[in-house]
Amino acid sequence: MKKCKSTDDVFDCFAEALNFNTCKDKSSDELKKHISKLNNQLYTNVIIYNYGNTQHLGDNYFDTFLLYLFEFNKANFDKIRIDTDYISKSLISKKMTIGKLFFDKPGQYGYRGDIGLWDDLEKYFLSEELPENESVLPCIISNAILTLTGNSVFNQKTFAVDKYNNGGMSGGSISNEFWTRKAIPLIMARMMVIKQEKNVSNNWTKKILCKIKSHFQ
Question: Rounded distance, CA 59 to CA 78, Å?
Fold first, then answer.
């Protein structure tokens, strides 16, 4: 995002990544109109990277847009989902493993138990080399969740794991929706971005968007 010097630049980046035509009106309202048509696309998730590097644009452009994304996800929870994400630049220079894809925590979890499961998966995959293709990550991660919890994220909307219960209303609870609709697609997108950036020296955040077709829908 920091490569975008104006809101017009941001609009053009979205237009290129999401394959719609740019136009003279590059307001947030116009961008919303194009985003609202995403349900006709073949992918299930769109991830926006380095959202935090937008203060220089001012005028609450992204605060308004982020609120719209929240409303969009709420209205289209069973279709396509849009999330923001961040990857530490330092990860690019290290030998990557699946576990390191979990290094940066998501901005929001589903239930309290998801926090403990995320941390456990980071440890579980700490030395596991990345697969050749990110498309196999859903199977790899869902099998690890079954091993760690004794439950499948496919069989029920929520389930409880005692070791993740640190109190609170949803203590120990695992959210099917969080893992299948957000967390696993985020991990897939991170692998895609890291592979791209490793092949482009000194060109961190070349793309601000990553599109994912998950195996859960």
Answer: 32
Alpha-carbon dihedral angle through residues 111, 115, 116, 122, given to the nearest 10 degrees: 140
Tell me the CA distances in angstroms from 72 to 93, 189, 215, one per residue in order.
35, 20, 21
Given CA atoms 65, 86, 13, 73 in this order, what sign does their dihedral have?
negative
pLDDT at 195: 81
Round to whole Å and give the CA distance between 164 and 171: 7
Query: Per the confidence metrics, is the pTM higher than 0.90?
Result: no
Q: What is the CB neighbour count within 10 angstroms for residue 135?
A: 15
Q: CA distances (Å), 215 to each of 104, 211, 212, in order?
A: 23, 13, 10
Residue-wise over 73-106: b if at least 16 C-beta within 10 A, else e? beeeeeebbbbbbbbeeebeeeebbbbbbbeeeb
- Tell me whether residue 59 is exposed, middle or buried, using C-beta atoms within 10 angstroms of its C-beta: 0 to 12, 13 to 18, 19 or more: exposed
Specify the pLDDT at position 41: 58
Contact criterion met (CB below 8 Å) for 133 and 127: no
How far apart, in whole angstroms, are the C-alpha atoms of residue 212 and residue 46? Answer: 6
β-bridge pairing 209-212 and 173-175: unpaired
State which residues of the chain have pLDDT below 50.
1-2, 200-207, 217
